[in-house]
Amino acid sequence: MATAVAKKKKVRINGCVAAAQAAKYADVDVITAYPIRPYTATMMALAQMVANGELDAEYIVADSEHSQLSIAHGASSSGARVFTGSSGVGVQFAYELYSPISGTRMPVQMMIADRTLDPPGDFGSEHTDALSARDMGWLMGWSCDAQEAFDNHLLGFRIGEDRRVLLPQMVCQDGFFVSHITTDVELPDTGQVQEFLPPYTHPYPLDPRRPVSHGPQIMPEQGPPLQLERARAMEGAVPVIEQAHDEFARIFGRRYDPWLEEFMTDGADVVFFVQGAHAVTARYAIRHMRERGAKVGLVRLKTIRPYPTDRVKDALSKFKVVGVIETNLGLGSVSSGGVLYAEACAALYESPTRPLVVSFMAGMGGEAIVLKEFYWMTNKMLDAQKRGAIEKRTHWVGFEE
Q1: pLDDT at residue 33 in the model
Q2: 8 Å CB contact between 182 and 12
Q3: pTM (two decimals)
């Protein structure tokens, strides 16, 4: 158990420290670390907590990201609540472990503070690192500020450890824009967390008193049922996610829609569809443009795995034009840009009223998406609405007139 009892308080911290605080409140048993910025501060904070006696956990410094996830896999298999993390190329180095961890149904939690892959490897927000693992059977979503980062980690443990789910979680936040910018965060009373997050008990832990076998290599005829089980677990996570968010609101007093955030969409003709911290800037831009008469709004995707297909269809089909802001690379994809466009279009395919959809490549290389770029993208969407057709499928923002 945790060695300290905490009362509810408000602190000013960044997203990295918020993630560390959530791991502490979750009373994790094992932490595996191999720091790479911008997530390094999370492991620094946890190391200090363990050293100061604030958290009774085994803190293991690995010799690589691959080893880091291997240790996390083994610890979770033994029944421990496990916390780990990475960024950018570090996410890639551990790639071999993602399928085995979800395939053996181990609810490891991984904090990702996004950074651009090499090249250019910049310290900033580009989601390609985590999205490259989006189909490996991990629950996945993005936080837009430090408070959401803290809350989403608690929610992740609650959902992933549910016996109806038993899946690992990538709890993502934008590098720099969330990981290093401080905001006010409400830290709860320890009793609230204990009510929301029961102790973790895996149904089949590695235990010499109850021998079981865990491993990724099985007979070919066993493969299809295993893959089907993972698919059903991901689909079955949907009601668990909704239930967990209802319980979270009841206990902590903060209510989140688990799937989508809509901002100033009433009366909107065109909307941005985005995930992550750039939604914060988008809100400011939308307020300004609304004051000038532009009918623009925002729909923020909060959970991408499992993908809320019907919710996306119902939300986006109300508008004339949808601008998908891509902070990721999907080179050679259907849009020749990012990967979010294809799933938005697929969700809208069954809708009888389909909007025009355009992809905006923005914030690439870790750059900020500034206000004037939101104004530029809005004008592109309004022009498409007037013409009844998009100019082209994908725009690279900042490189076009």
Answers
A1: 98
A2: yes
A3: 0.95
